[in-house]
């Protein structure tokens, strides 16, 4: 995987989570009706939780023998992506209503799927980023956070203009689930092929 492909993969996988209707979107839509910058504030709270996680996982990744560990992690991440895709299509989401930056912190830190995502899918991307040195992890963090700020910032700005939210949410669910399923299958297939080489 070259650097450009890695960044594009990061963006698409990040967007699959960002576009998913759930607590973050519910908060942004609710607060965006009265605060145009709600999406930016919520994303800032989200970033406060994410950046330390990225740093810790990057340092942890440097202490591991990548090899087989990375493939097992990729397999786990792929399975998780398929599960999350299934949940999206089944409409399994919840709402948490708080306000501002603190709401972004709470909705991230208290969401078990957020932590699981970072320990599997996110960690896999971080391990891949290590192939590109410091620029790789920096580009990964910037690309991932840009998806959060760009999407939720836009949603809060245009929240008052959006109508028929149920239909829009369903379209976003299908898009998110499709992205998750495609990359989930890619991770699973590529990791199984690599593991096959280890054990044959």
Short description:
It is a multi-pass membrane protein. The protein has 200 residues and is an all-alpha fold.
The description of the largest β-sheet is:
none
H/E order of the elements?
HHHHHHHH
Rg for CA atoms: 17 Å
Shape: globular
Instruction: Please count the beta strands (DSSP E, at least 2 residues each).
Output: 0
Proportion of strand residues: under 5%
Find the structural class using helix and strand composition.
Answer: mainly alpha
Low-confidence stretches: 93-97
| Helical percentage | over 70%
What is the CA-CA span between the terminal residues?
Answer: 24 Å
The helix tally amounts to: 8
The total number of structural domains is: 1
Mean pLDDT: 78
Task: Tell me what the structure shows.
- The structure is a single chain.
- This protein has 200 residues and is mainly α.
- The chain has one domain (22-199).
- Helix content is 82%, strand content 0%.
- It is built from eight helices and no strands.
- The protein has helices at 3-18, 23-32, 38-63, 66-90, 100-109, 112-129, 133-157, 165-199.
- The two termini are 24 Å apart.
């Amino acid at each position: 995987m070259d650097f450009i492909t890695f960044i594009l993969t990061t963006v698409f996988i990040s967007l699959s989570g960002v576009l998913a209707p759930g607590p973050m979107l519910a908060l942004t839509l609710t607060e965006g009706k009265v605060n145009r910058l709600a999406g930016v504030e919520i994303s800032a709270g989200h970033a406060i939780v994410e950046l330390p996680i990225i740093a810790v996982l990057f340092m942890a990744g440097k202490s591991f023998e990548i090899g087989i560990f990375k493939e097992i992690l990729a397999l786990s991440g792929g399975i998780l992506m398929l599960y999350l895709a299934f949940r999206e299509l089944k409409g399994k989401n919840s709402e948490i209503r708080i306000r501002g930056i603190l709401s972004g912190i709470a909705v991230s830190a208290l969401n078990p799927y957020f932590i699981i995502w970072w320990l599997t899918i996110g960690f896999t991307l971080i391990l891949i980023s290590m192939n590109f040195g410091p620029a790789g992890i920096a580009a990964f963090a910037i690309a991932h956070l840009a998806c959060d700020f760009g999407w939720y910032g836009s949603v809060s700005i245009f929240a008052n203009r959006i109508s028929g939210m149920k239909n829009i949410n369903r379209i976003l669910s299908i898009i998110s689930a499709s992205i998750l399923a495609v990359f989930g299958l890619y991770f699973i297939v590529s990791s199984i092929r690599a593991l096959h080489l280890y054990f044959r």
